[in-house]
Amino acid sequence: MAITLAEKYMPYVDEIFTKESKRSLITNQDFTWTGAHTIKVYKVSTSKMNDYNRNPAAGFTGSRYGEIHDLDATTEEFTLKKDRSFTYAIDKLDKDETVQQLAAASSLSRQQREVIIPEVDTYVYGVMCDNAGNKPAALALTAENIYTEILKASETLDNAEVPETNRFIVVTPSVYALMKKCKDITMETDIGNDMRLRGVVSNLDGASVIKVPAIRLPEDFGFMMCHPSATVAPVKLEDFIIHECPPGINGSLVEGRVCYDAFVLDNKVKAIYYQATA
Description:
alpha+beta
């Protein structure tokens, strides 16, 4: 006797694990591109100090304050380069016959979590590493040397007069494991709930430690110490549209466009220290 066993599809989607973005912690939105595709920022020079000439010699015709020079006022230009888009369709019967799991709204949310956020994150982190003002030679990080290298980064930022408050250390999960194994490191894990929700896992010597999946970072990433004032990471446009039964499609047409970029300011490159691994 043959028996055909029943099959049942549950109204559940096996979602891929994803991480929320943490780039807002280490970047800023100080500039606006509203109404423009390119903006320019001034860089103004300063004047050197002189010895005041209190008793000039007879016939002196110059300034007692020193030789007069004009200040330079040059500009740096930021043009948005990343203008990205996506589109897909969901047939009305496909939606009905998948227990409503193939729906436009939920699929759009999934697109943002699994595609858009990782792409923007990867790009921003790459720009910061490429334009870091401090790039020591690549080396193999171990539990024995990780603290020494982080102290070097902190010292470098100190000497560049980078603000001591609001510094961040970005690490991969593997480097974070090395930090926890290092006998010289005592990390403060009593982090405020608001910062923990945003991705801060601990505090080391006054710098907040952020753990980022290695897949969103450059291949040779070791760690990065930075101050958010150095990098502007605008997302000028996030436009997502669901068209119901447009011409030629019996169902939903989903379209999206994201315009973004990242820029490291010339006068603040020293606020980023990037240590690559050998």
